[in-house]
Every structure is written in structure tokens, then in C-alpha cells.
Design a protein that fits this description.
This protein is 41% helix and 17% strand. It is of the alpha/beta class. The chain has a single domain (2-268), classed as Alpha/Beta hydrolase fold, catalytic domain (Rossmann fold), CATH 3.40.50.1820. It comes from Amycolatopsis deserti.
Length: 286
């Protein structure tokens, strides 16, 4: 595993790079920490060049300013990582808020995306107007204002199915706790107002797949993915497990992601010349 810092406009991003093969950028959601994906990246590094990073303002990256987060900065950062570390083109997997970044990246910068897998984007504004989960972001923001980041952070994590049933890596948990106030103070409003650019996504010149975990059926983290897939006319797939399944069970989740990402890569790349030409190898009839 190689690690380093990539300078982008207004920040310096901590990144990790593993393996070889087609580039695969993994984008984290709330807390924005590359460590969420350490086990998953290890699992996939035999087939992909896996790039993970701490989103600006979070963990080991810089860029934490007293100003609201802009989604354009998030997608610009992802583009810069692909250009700087992946030769200008990559498959992209985003989880939760990272899936929102992936959707924005695909709409704004389609030239650097070879394919997008958006796993459980909490784009709650695509739900019906009378859906009670439409008010989730407002309720959590109110709890932050009333009780502070520790209480709001704990209540937020409690809304994620499966959390509390396994232990996070100690270093990831420590960094996440250091990111909670920044999350609610400066990032939260941008997640809350996000709506995908449906026209741009429907016209994307690369494959897009939406998905959610089997354990999140009917939950607010999974349902927007179904709605978005239906609106833009792309496939939807069910992944194993919970919202952060790749943390406790990276092998299980990795097997599913490997299949989808591999199919995306082979569908978007031409058949290798070796398989398009006749060879002089002798074939022995059996």
C-alpha cells in the first residue's frame, strides 16, 4: 500500500493506493475516512488499482475551513484524484454520502468516469413529499443544535442498521469522532439539499449501477437508490448486508463489488487483441 498527499484547490488530500489493474476509486460518506475501506481495498487489490482517500476537511486531509462544504469541491476533488493517480479514468464506487459525491462527479465530470456504482446514497429529496424520512436531515441538525456533536453523532450512527453489532477499527473510530462536529456544522446542509442531475446521469456515456444492502430493505438509506435508478433508467442491484457491510465483512461485500466492477470494466473496454486474432497454437481434438 502506498500513501501520500495530493494537493488540490483549497486542500491537500490524504490517499492510499493498492494493487494493480483497472483503477477503482472508493469514496466514503459521513466522516470521509479512507479507513472505512481498508479491508475492502485489500480484498480487491489483486484485480484493481484501488484508490481511497480522506475527503477534504476530514481525518488526515486538510481543507477544514469555517465555511459550508460545497458539492462542487467534493466532485472536483474526486476528479483530481482520478487525474493525478489513475491516469485520467477510473471506475468509481461511493457509499452513502460518497455515493452522492459519485453521482455529482458522474454528472459534472463524465470524462473521468469509466463506470459508477452508487451504494445507498441518502438523497432523501427524491422520496415522496409526505415521506417521514424527508425530515431526517432537519431532525438530526436540530439534535446537533440542542445537544451537541457527541449526542447527535451517537443518534446518527444509531439510525444506521447494524451499527453497534461489531467494532470499528480503533483508529477509524477515533478519527470519526474528530470529524463529527465538522460533519454537522459544515457538511450536513449540503447532503440534505442534494438532488441528482437526472438528465446528465441518464445521458452518461458509461455504465451506472445503483444499489443497496439486503438488510436495508425499506430503510431510508436504501430506498433512494431504487428511485434514482428508476428515474434515470439504469440497473439496480442488491448488495449483501448492511449500510457499511464492507467494514465487518469485507470479503463478502468485496465479492459482490468485484463482480459488478469487473463487468463494468469488461463492458466498457474493447476485447483484448489477443482474443480477436487467430493464433498458431495447435488444438488437439479430444
Amino acid at each position: 500500500m502506498q500513501s501520500g498527499m495530493l494537493d488540490v484547490e483549497g486542500a491537500s488530500l490524504y490517499y492510499e493506493k493498492r494493487g494493480s489493474g483497472p483503477a477503482l476509486l472508493l469514496i466514503a460518506g459521513a466522516g470521509g475516512d479512507a479507513g472505512y475501506f481498508s479491508g475492502l481495498a485489500d480484498e480487491l487489490s489483486d484485480a484493481f488499482t484501488v484508490i481511497t482517500y480522506d475527503r477534504r476537511g476530514n481525518s488526515r486531509s486538510t481543507g477544514r475551513f469555517e465555511a459550508p462544504m460545497k458539492m462542487t469541491d467534493q466532485s472536483n476533488d474526486a476528479r483530481a484524484l482520478i487525474e493525478g493517480l489513475a491516469g485520467g479514468k477510473a471506475l468509481v464506487f461511493g457509499n452513502s454520502g460518497g455515493a452522492i459525491v459519485g453521482l455529482d462527479l458522474a454528472a459534472r465530470h463524465p470524462d473521468v468516469v469509466a463506470g459508477l456504482i452508487a451504494h445507498e446514497p441518502p438523497a432523501l429529496r427524491v422520496l415522496p413529499a409526505d415521506d417521514p424520512w424527508r425530515g431526517f436531515f432537519d431532525r438530526m441538525e436540530a439534535r446537533y443544535t440542542e445537544a451537541g456533536p457527541a449526542v447527535a453523532g451517537a443518534e446518527f450512527v444509531a439510525t444506521i442498521r447494524g451499527e453497534g453489532s461489531y467494532a470499528w477499527p480503533e483508529d477509524v473510530q477515533k478519527r470519526f469522532l474528530g470529524n463529527v462536529d465538522y460533519l454537522f456544522r459544515w457538511e450536513w446542509a449540503e447532503w440534505a439539499r442534494f438532488e441528482p442531475d437526472e438528465r446528465a446521469l441518464a445521458e452518461a456515456p458509461f455504465p451506472i449501477v445503483l444499489g443497496a444492502g439486503a438488510a436495508d430493505r425499506g430503510l431510508h438509506y436504501g430506498r433512494p437508490s431504487v428511485e434514482i435508478a428508476s428515474r434515470i433508467g439504469v440497473p439496480w442491484v442488491e448488495f449483501p448486508g448492511i449500510h457499511l457491510e464492507f467494514l465487518p465483512r469485507p470479503k463478502l461485500f468485496g465479492a459482490a463489488l468485484r463482480a459488478v466492477a469487473s463487468q463494468m470494466h469488461t463492458s466498457s473496454e474493447p476485447v483484448p487483441e489477443l482474443w480477436n486474432t487467430e493464433t498458431e497454437l495447435a488444438v488437439t481434438a479430444i
